[in-house]
Design a protein that fits this description.
187 residues; six-stranded antiparallel beta sheet; 6 strands; globular; alpha+beta; 27% helix; 5 helices
Amino acid sequence: MAAQRGSNSSAEAKNDDGPNSNSYDDLDGFGVAVVREDGKWRVTPLPMSALTSLSAAETELREMRSSGAVFGLLDIDDEFFVILRPAPSGTHLLISDATAAIDYDIAAEVLDALNVDIPDIDPDDLDDIEPWEEGNLALLADLGLPEAVLGIIVAETDLYPDEQLGSIAERLGFPDELAAVLDKLSR
């Protein structure tokens, strides 16, 4: 988020191999797949490649093969989050901070998929810019998280992305499942 953004922390900036590199050695955060099937929630970790590539995250989620709802929660470098939900008509997306596209390739990929231009902001001015979301705030409404409530969670820019995703998990009813996976990931 703008208040939390330190320096350019993109995979591109941390790797001399250039843009679209798959280096995520220095990238913090997590990705999880969330499945609701037969009235129960299941949360599983996604590979780190999901934090640097939208197509990798989409592929992982599409391969889950569930008759229930499937979506992904990505905390990218503790700076912003992405929610993605594959559907037959295309993947529904929400990014919590559109300005992250200046520093992070995956954020630029999300905006591109949404047909939204990357903000024309000087990178030196990012700390002074309030973040804004782009995408579908209603992408989890059918699961019990109304658009207005998700909008409030996204607008809480004083919270870190993991805290915002925790609020989403709490509202939908899988906070323990998310906490268990995050606990295993932190070991």
